[in-house]
Structure formats: C-alpha cells, structure tokens
Amino acid sequence: MPKVRINRIKLVLTEQGKTNRELARELSKAESTVSRWCTNDAQPSLEMLHEIATKLNVDIRELLTPTIKHLEK
Fold first, then answer.
1. What is the pLDDT of residues 11-51, one digit of tens each?
2. How buried is 37 (Cβ within 10 angstroms: 0-12 exposed, 13-18 middle, 19+ buried)?
3. DSSP assignment string, 30-62
4. Distances in Å between the alpha carbon of 28 and those of 3, 5, 14, 46, 66?
5. What Cα–Cα distance (Å) separates residue 8 from each residue in 47, 72, 73?
6. Domain extents in the chain
7. Could you give the C-alpha distances from 72 to 2, 61, 68, 69, in angstroms and in order?
8. Which CATH number fits domain 9-59: 3.40.50.300, 2.20.25.100, 1.10.260.40, 1.20.1440.20?
9. Alpha-carbon Rg of the chain, whole angstroms?
10. How far apart are the C-alpha atoms of 28 and 4, rounded to whole Å?
C-alpha cells in the first residue's frame, strides 16, 4: 500500500526556502522528528500543527493535503 501524504509541511518549507533543521530549531524539536513529519512517516498533533503554521506564517489548512478535489465548473 502506498504511503498516504497527509501533510504538506515539506512543500511549504521548500516554498519558503527553509529547511527541516530551521523548523526544528524554531519549534525546539529534534531534527529527526521534523524529518519524519516532512516524509509523512509520522504526523504532528493538531496543537503542533497549529504551532508549525504559526512559525511558517501560513493558514493551518496549507499544511494539510486536501481530502476533496474540487471540480471545475
């Protein structure tokens, strides 16, 4: 079964020109923890996702993969 990509943390970091290491430092988390989030091997709690969104200055929804594909009209 293929890995389900639940979060978009790595994509947002890339868009902002930031690294896992920088985010880990800002959150006072281990680099390995942030790396696991970025590869979708683990998921942050909702509270941590909120903190990540705050640190990256994005709406929390930008960190999640949409579950519904909107149809173009």
1. 999 999 999 999 999 999 999 999 999 999 999 999 999 99
2. buried
3. -HHHHHHHHTTSS---HHHHHHHHHHHTS-GGG
4. 27, 24, 20, 17, 28
5. 16, 23, 26
6. 9-59
7. 27, 20, 12, 9
8. 1.10.260.40
9. 13
10. 26
Position 21: which residue type? R
Amino acid at 49: L
| Both structure tokens of 15 | 């868009």
Structure tokens at 7: 């979060």
